[in-house]
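REQUEST ID: PR-0412
SUBMITTED BY: lab tech R.K.
PRIORITY: routine
TASK: structure prediction, single protein chain
INPUT:
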Amino acid sequence: MPVDRYFRALDGGDTRGAAALFAEGGELIPPLGGAIRGREAIADYLQEHCEGMRLFPEQVQHGTLGALVDGRVRLPAFEVRVQWQFRIDAGQIQRLRVRLVASLQELAHLRTHRIAAHPKV
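STATUS: complete
OUTPUT:
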């Protein structure tokens, strides 16, 4: 199933392999920012934004049109709860929406980390 292969590819650092699971006109909707369309653009996005990221899918609900996965994402400086909403057709990912479902405490930590990493000049 493309959902399992997606998580294995990204955890293995294979961003091109993860992007290849999308339909040619597939769409990735990250938690911050607009939709990314097409395999090449998705591969570029994943390469740029997923380095050092570990994915921990914890609860998977399969449906007729895809899957809903709750879990965590860990980066070197923080960890946050997320939800992946996959729409699958013909064995390919048509759309993947990634939503932050972090607690207020997690979001406060994320904000603190972001400010420390990118102070205003």
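NOTES: Residues 112 and 118 are 10 Å apart (CA to CA).
REVIEWED BY: pending
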